[in-house]
Amino acid sequence: MILTSQRAAVAAIALSLAFAAPLAAQASPTQTATTQVSARVFTPLAITSNEALRFGNLFSPFTAKTIAWTDNAASGGRARFTITGEGGAELALSITVPENIATGGNNIPLSAVELRHGTNDADGTGAVVTLNTGTANALNVTMGGAAASAQSYFLRIRATATPAANQAAGSYAGTISVAVNYTGS
After folding, report:
1. How far apart are CA 168 and CA 164, in angstroms?
2. Distance between CA 135 and CA 46 in Å, rounded?
3. CATH number of 46-182: 3.40.30, 3.30.70, 3.30.1360, 2.60.120?
4. Using CA atoms, how far apart are residues 145 and 56, in angstroms rounded to an integer?
5. N or C: which end of the chain has fewer CB within 10 A?
6. d(CA 26, CA 17)
7. Buried b vs exposed e over 29-50: b needs ≥16 C-beta within 10 Å?
8. pTM of the full structure
9. What whole-number distance in Å separates Cα of residue 75 and Cα of residue 4?
10. If we measure between CA atoms, which residue out of 48, 62, 137, 56 comes closest to residue 98?
């Protein structure tokens, strides 16, 4: 009798396996999908200061001296910067012009500061924007040219220096700072 119950148990297990296997085979197959992964790396940004803002020599009687867009000599000239980067990309510029140029405790105030900017390197071209002194001036611009190509963008800065009638003699200096980043747009 023990042998019969063992046989019955083995038969029951075999029967359950026989029915379980077809049920497992009827399960839904796994579904899959794929997609591409990509990225575009922009041309690295670079900025170069090509020329300094120079007022040259100021003589008595002291009067205001304004630099013209075309001035580019040791006696006076506009500042010039070149930005190179990705064609068609939007850039965020931050330009800070000092309120004064100074030597020791003496200052000569700067005023009428203007930025001429654009994709053409010619002096008489580009949009003109008035800049404030002593604070960062924010401006977004777009590089010319097609994407995936290195392009150039040009900045020129001019100003007026107004020394006092009794301005102390000396070599006066200051710093113009230009920062540039891609905006991601």
Report:
1. 9
2. 23
3. 2.60.120
4. 36
5. N
6. 14
7. eeeeeeeeeeeeeebebebeee
8. 0.78
9. 119
10. 137
Q: Report the distance separating Cα 119 and Cα 108, nearest Å.
A: 32
Report domain extents, the chain: 46-182
**How far, in Å, CA of 23 to CA of 10, rounded?**
20
- How would you classify the pairing of strands 100-103 and 106-118? antiparallel
Which residues pair with residue 76 across a beta bridge? 73
Beta partners for residue 85, in sequence order: 151
pLDDT digit string, tens, across residues 7-27: 666 565 655 655 555 555 567
pLDDT classification of 139: cutoffs 50, 70, 90: very high
Rounded-to-integer distance, Cα 137 and Cα 129, Å: 10
DSSP codes of every residue in 74-100: TTEE-EEEEEEEETT-EEEEEEEB-SE
